[in-house]
Amino acid sequence: MSETRWTPPQQRPRLAAGTIDVWRADLAAGRERERGLLSAAEQARAARFVRAEDGLRWAAARGILRALLGACLDAEPAALRFAQGSHGKPRLAAGPDASGAGDLRFNLSHSGDTALYAVTLGREVGVDVELPRRAVDHVAIARRILGAAEADRLAALDPTTRASEFRRAWVRWEAVLKCRGTGIGGADAPSTGPAPWLHDLDVGAPAAAALAAEDGPCTVRCWQWPAAPAAG
Question: Is this model's pTM higher than 0.85 or not?
Answer without folding.
Answer: yes
